[in-house]
Amino acid sequence: MEHEIFMLNRIEFLLHLADNALIIGHRNSEWCAHGPALEQDIAISNIALDYIGQARNFYQHAAFLINELPHESSVFSIPATEDTLAYLRDASAFKNHLMTELPNGDWAFTTLRIFFFSSYQYFLYQQLIQHEDAQIAAIAEKSLKEVTYHLRWSSDWVIRLGDGTTESYQRMNTAINALWPYTQELFQENNFLQPTKNILAQIQTDWNEKIKNIFEEAGLHLPEKSVQYQGGTKGFHTEHLPIILTEMQLLQRVYPNCEW
Amino acid sequence: MEAAINDKVWSILAAIMDPEIPVLSIVDLGIVRSIELNNQQLTISITPTYSGCPAMDIISMQVKMSLLNAGFELPIIKQKLSPVWTTDWITNYGKQQLKAYGIAPPIGKSFDGAYLEDIIVPCPQCNSTNTLLISQFGSTSCKALFKCLDCMEPFDYFKCH
Ligand SMILES: [Zn+2]
Questions:
Q1: Is residue A220 part of a domain?
Q2: Which residues constitute the domain of residue B127?
Q3: Which distant-in-sequence residues (6+ apart) come within 8 Å of A168 by Cβ?
């Protein structure tokens, strides 16, 4: 029994990592063919693709562990695959951070979100490379290389817009005020984070330092005080997640098992 | 495994090209990790290059088709994430092929290359080192976009990973 709870927590943790990557990947993919310039369109589409790939790796591993569970105790439909986990779960089963599901807004909002989120992933994956589950460690090591590029790219945009024109500076400030209320959820403890609980504080310290340095270079400031939202990891989402899922899952819901 | 079969399988794999870079074989790309034969059952382990690389599914399919065509039973293709693929595994021949194809091969050891502004990438057309980074992301996950300031041609750089 104890082992089962342990495994269920691990599966939830994997779904959390996968959902985060899938949802932010989907958001970024919405920019495909709408980027402000060809090179940036290509860049954000590539970043989206990296995220979807990370999501696939985490879902595949989650599916493997789900299928290993004793059948009678499984709360998941079996056999699970990466596709059933991405396409056949309801919004309340998703465990992504709220930040990832917010609509794209303008380029400042989009690049700032990637900056906040990839900074978080950068420090998280560095820790997960030591994870006792060798597959999680391997996915983290692979993903870290990609996230390093995302972080570089998004840092450049935060600096460029913050230290740019009056309008770009204003837009970046509007984005900071809009996104900041969703930042502290990244460091919220949670049951399924059990094995990583003790590293969250370290990740938060590293994250704060990174944000501070880039903001300084960009001439930007952190908001003084702000409300903080949370609930995504527990399945309490904004109204935006069901809308994404409706679009993403439509085909599998309407034509179950359809392939093309 | 018999050496003859081993050689044969490797030579079949060496003829399979990366679908996005048709001069680079999957063996030179360094993604074939192992070949095993158990009671007629071939198992090929390959390491994905990038998490979201759509070429991986096509490559798996091509490996299956080529081996079937050569008279082997349907092989099992295992995707192995660890150890993580790195551009260090691209063979020297593979790097020459990349350059001849117009893609600047990765410079330096795996991850030193993340700071693209800090490296000098010679132009694969005219060898000039007077080149400029245009974008950290290129036409596929593995590439960045550069421009040569001498011959004025834009070119792809195979990023270090
Ligand atoms: Zn040139």
A1: yes
A2: 103-158
A3: A108, A160, A161, A162
ipTM for the predicted complex comes to 0.78
- pLDDT tens figures, A66-81: 999 887 666 788 899 9
Interchain CB distance below 8 Å, B82 and A148: no
- Asked if residue A135 belongs to a domain, the reply is yes
Name, of A67-76, A109-118, B40-49, the range with top average pLDDT: A109-118
The confidence score (pLDDT) of residue A224 equals 84
Bridge partners (DSSP) listed for residue B156: B103, B145
Q: Are residues B23 and B70 in the same domain?
A: yes
Give chain A positions within 8 Å (CB) of B141: 46, 49-50
List, for residues A137-146, the tens digit of each pLDDT value. 999 999 998 9
Query: In this complex, is the C-beta atom of B82 within 8 Å of any C-beta atom belonging to chain A?
Result: yes
Query: What are the φ and ψ backbone dihedral angles of B103, each rounded to 5 degrees?
Result: -110, 125
C-beta atoms of A57 and B81 within 8 A: yes
* Closest residue on chain A to B112 (Cα): A145
Considering its fold, how many domains does chain A have in total?
1
Q: Which residues of A touch B137 (CB under 8 A)?
A: 39, 42-43, 46-47, 149, 153
- Which residue, chain included where needed, has tokens 């596929």? B140
Helix B55-69 × helix B3-13 angle, to 10°: 130
The pTM of the full predicted model, rounded to 2 decimals, is: 0.89
B106 reaches A (C-beta below 8 A): no
